[in-house]
Amino acid sequence: MRVKKGKSVLFVVNNPDVYKSSNDSTFVIFGEAKIEGDAANNALSENIGDLNEIPDLVPATEEKATGAEEGDSEGVSAEHIQLVVDQTSCTRAQAVAALKETKGDVVNAIMKLTVV
């Protein structure tokens, strides 16, 4: 069975189980749908465009930390800093700054870094 979606996408279901509703002209199809090779390649090549136009996810230049350097972690537990870094994927400096702003409260520091 073949199902066409749009102009260029073609789904193929080999060995489908097809059921028809007794009250309507509705069909239910069970089976593994695969995108036909040529149609898939054409659809992908149309949607990809120019790869040079894709923006970088990480800026090329490294941003300076906002007031929290390696030596500024006084009064903050190293375990708490590592926990915040692990949970938020932020830098050590950002974790230290958030922990200082929240007076060492790990949960609020994580929330501060993750909630937009």
Summarize this structure briefly.
With 116 residues, the chain is α+β, with helices and mostly antiparallel strands. It contains four helices and five strands. The protein has two domains: 2-50, Ubiquitin Ligase Nedd4, Chain: W; 70-114, Helicase, Ruva Protein, domain 3 (Orthogonal Bundle).
Could you characterize the architecture of this molecule?
The chain is an alpha+beta fold. It has 2 domains: 2-50, Ubiquitin Ligase Nedd4, Chain: W (Single Sheet), CATH 2.20.70; 70-114, Orthogonal Bundle (Helicase, Ruva Protein, domain 3). The chain is 36% helix and 17% strand. It has 4 helices and 5 strands. It has a 3-stranded antiparallel beta sheet. A two-stranded antiparallel ribbon has the order 3-4. Strand 3 (17-20) and strand 4 form a beta hairpin. Helix 2 packs across helix 3 and helix 3 packs across helix 4. 10% of the residues are buried. Mean pLDDT is 75; it is low at 63-69.
